[in-house]
């Protein structure tokens, strides 16, 4: 395990100021197109679903509209499911898994649920393939009042505008090798703290809410996903990314306390999915399929409780 690192920006042990954040931002380059890869897929669904814009990022309002997809025949007597993807824009299957679910499964489940999908919460992060936004802020630690992240504030405003409370929320994420090679070292440098090398689990896992863990709900997600890809094993301490494994492939976080996307509602059932796209055992398509399977597993469990 390494506790020494040399990040190219900033002075070791000193938190970043605006100069260091600007230096970091200057290293970001566009690697793919939100408009071409995401917006075109969303607009192609417009005849089958209600598409609306709930905001736009001030970095470039024309280039980065914030779009959501809703099932038709919205009925306040149905429970409402929220699906969010791309809160960390670099986590690709979160975005495209959400879109695949809408295209292939959402109409079927709209018989029983209102479904609202925000497939790419952080389009700037999607384009530059980064965890943060341009201010070096992590949107997935920024879901609280007066959020410093436009991306998080936009999604919170969307949820507040819904006609019905959110009953269940699935937040689609990935854990990647770059979490250790880039993003956690950058976080340590930004905050002026020591970087301690972590462990990247090989496989799928979920993160439940410590305050309402819903273990059977999480199990249903895991069991659905295992038909598509492998489940992450615990490390030698029976942990995944430093948290105790409470059942196969499941850990819990205090989502509201940490400002996580999964904590933005008061939903009874919440889960954050974590796909591992860098595994030699999976393809990009299988990662998207795993995200779809997670949502389907969640919905089938909820249907069985009716």
TrEMBL record:
SUPFAM superfamilies: Zn-dependent exopeptidases (SSF53187). It comes from the Bacteria. Residues 30-306 form the Peptidase M14 domain. Its cofactor is Zn(2+). Pfam families: AstE_AspA_cat. It comes from Aliivibrio fischeri (strain ATCC 700601 / ES114) (Vibrio fischeri). This is Peptidase M14 domain-containing protein. CDD domains: M14_REP34-like. Gene3D superfamilies: Zn peptidases. InterPro entries: AstE_AspA_cat, Peptidase_M14. Belongs to the peptidase M14 family. Keywords: Hydrolase, Metal-binding, Zinc. GO terms for molecular function: hydrolase activity, acting on ester bonds; metallocarboxypeptidase activity; zinc ion binding.
């Amino acid at each position: 395990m390494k506790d020494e690192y040399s990040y190219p920006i900033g002075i070791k042990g000193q938190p970043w100021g605006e100069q260091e954040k600007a230096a970091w931002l200057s290293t970001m380059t566009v690697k793919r197109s939100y408009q071409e890869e995401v917006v075109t897929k969303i607009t192609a669904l417009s005849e089958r679903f209600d598409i609306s814009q709930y905001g736009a990022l001030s970095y470039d309002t024309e280039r980065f509209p914030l779009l959501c997809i809703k099932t038709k025949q919205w009925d306040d007597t149905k429970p409402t499911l929220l699906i969010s993807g791309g809160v960390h824009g670099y986590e690709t299957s979160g975005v495209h898994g959400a879109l695949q679910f809408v295209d292939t499964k959402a109409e079927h489940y709209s018989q029983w649920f209102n479904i609202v999908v925000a497939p790419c919460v952080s389009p700037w992060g999607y384009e530059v393939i980064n965890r943060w936004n341009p201010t070096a802020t992590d949107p997935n630690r920024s879901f609280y009042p007066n959020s410093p992240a436009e991306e998080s504030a936009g999604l919170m405003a969307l949820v507040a505008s819904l006609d019905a409370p959110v009953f269940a929320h699935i937040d689609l994420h990935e854990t990647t090798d770059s979490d250790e090679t880039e993003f956690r070292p950058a976080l340590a440098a930004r905050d002026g703290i020591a970087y301690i090398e972590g462990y990247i689990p090989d496989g799928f896992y979920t993160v439940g809410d410590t305050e309402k863990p819903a273990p059977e709900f999480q199990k249903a997600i895991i069991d659905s996903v295992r038909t598509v890809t492998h489940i992450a094993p615990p490390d030698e301490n029976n942990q995944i990314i430093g948290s105790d494994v409470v059942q196969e492939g499941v850990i819990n976080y205090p989502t509201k306390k940490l400002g996580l996307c999964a904590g933005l509602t008061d939903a009874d059932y919440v889960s954050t999915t974590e796909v591992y796209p860098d595994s030699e055992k999976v393809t990009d398509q299988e990662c998207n399929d795993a995200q779809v399977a997670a949502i389907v597993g969640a919905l089938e469990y909820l249907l069985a409780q009716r």
